[in-house]
Each structure stands twice: as C-alpha cells, then as structure tokens.
Design brief:
Blueprint lengths: L1 E6 L7 E8 L8 H10 L1 H14 L7 E5 L5 E8 L10 H18 L4 E4 L11 H15 L8 E6 L2 H11 L3
Parallel strand pairs: 1-6, 2-4, 2-5, 5-6
Antiparallel strand pairs: 3-4
The structure holds adenosine-5-diphosphoribose.
Length: 172
C-alpha cells in the first residue's frame, strides 16, 4: 500500500473518495466540512439530509458514504471525530474508529485511492501530535491487511500537521 503526503485543500483531490471531518448532524459546518459542502454543491447536503432522515445522527467514530457531486472525487465518506475532552473519554479509540469505519466503507465499494484530512485536530481540538501518532499506529497495522485500497493520501491543510506527518509518513 502506498502512502502519500500532500499539503493543501482536500476538495481539490482527484481520487476515489475523500474523507470529511463531519459532525453528528451531517448537515455541514465549518472547517473541512464547510469546504467540502461548498465545493460539492447542494446535492451533497440533500443526500446527507436523506441519510439523516433514514438513520438519524452519525455517532462519533462512525461513518457514512455519499456521492461526490461537483467534487473531483467519486465519493465522500463523512466521519465524525471525537471532540477532545482531555483524553479521558476514549478519544484515541474513537479517532481510530473513524479511520477504521471510513476504510470499511471504501473497501465495500472496492475503492483504491482514499484521501484523509487531519480528523478532529481543528474545531474538535484533538492535539495534533497525539492524533498523528494515533493515525500512524493505525496505518502501521492496517498496511499489513488484505484490502482493495492501493493508496492512502494524507492531506494536511495547516503547517503544523504537515510537519508532524512529514516525520511519520516516510516510516509507514
Ligand atoms: N482541506 C483539508 N483539510 C482542511 C481543510 C481543507 N479544505 N480545511 C480545514 N482542514 C483541516 C484543518 O486544518 C484541521 O487540521 O482539517 C482538520 C480538521 O479540522 P476541522 O475541519 O475543524 O474538523 P474537526 O476538528 O474534526 O471538527 C469538526 O468542525 O467544521 C466543523 O462541521 C464540522 O462540527 C464539525 C467540526
């Protein structure tokens, strides 16, 4: 499995699926969620509304999949990261669940190239260094599993995450 690190805007990524750091309402917000909805257009919100009507809120750690609409990606996988409360509320485990459940949905569709933002490290205040460590350990294990996925692309929007990932991705 190939790991690629990029600095930039995930809405510009041409791949099979991009991951959205959503909130439980699935109805959009700020940060990467806002950028993805803005770039995808109103079709994305309509599909999210439908999912919300049928299955209710998306719990932290869980993920849902929609089409990509006006984005250059076939699918958007929306996952809800943990809000950081100091580390005593199983935040690390929930963050790992976000990656695990997002990849599970991608594998069900036999997708090959998946782009992740730095889930929970913005508005949800998960410490960037700890999040990078959690993600690194997760993919260290995941890279040995049998999967349809051929490439994981880490898209870092801010310098801090990019510098953290530069040190880690080369060791995957
Ligand atoms: N492309 C890639 N990454 C981005 C982009 C973008 N266009 N915009 C922001 N980011 C990065 C931020 O720099 C941060 O590192 O995404 C990471 C996650 O930050 P947030 O988007 O704030 O997501 P999160 O911390 O998971 O909080 C989710 O914020 O936007 C709302 O609706 C969202 O309520 C939810 C909450």
């Amino acid at each position: 499995m190939k790991f690629t690190l990029k600095k930039g805007d995930i809405t510009k990524e041409k791949c099979d699926a991009i991951i959205n750091a959503a909130n439980s309402s699935l109805l959009g917000g700020g940060g990467v969620d806002g950028a993805i909805h803005l770039a995808a257009g109103k079709g994305l919100l309509e599909e999210c509304r439908l999912i919300r009507q049928n299955s209710g809120e998306c719990d932290p750690g869980k993920a849902v999949i929609t089409k990509g609409y006006n984005l250059s990606t076939r699918f958007v996988i929306h996952t809800v990261g943990p809000i950081w409360h100091g580390g005593s509320q199983n935040e690390k485990e929930t963050l790992k669940e976000c990656y695990k459940n997002s990849l599970k949905l991608a594998e069900e569709k036999k997708l090959k190239t998946i782009a992740f933002p730095n889930i929970s490290t913005g508005v949800y205040r998960f410490p960037k260094e700890l999040a990078a460590q959690v993600v690194f350990e997760f993919f260290k294990e995941y890279s040995n599993t049998k999967t349809s996925i051929e490439e994981i692309i880490f898209i870092c929007f801010d310098d801090e995450n990019f510098e953290l990932y530069e040190k880690l991705v080369s060791k995957l």
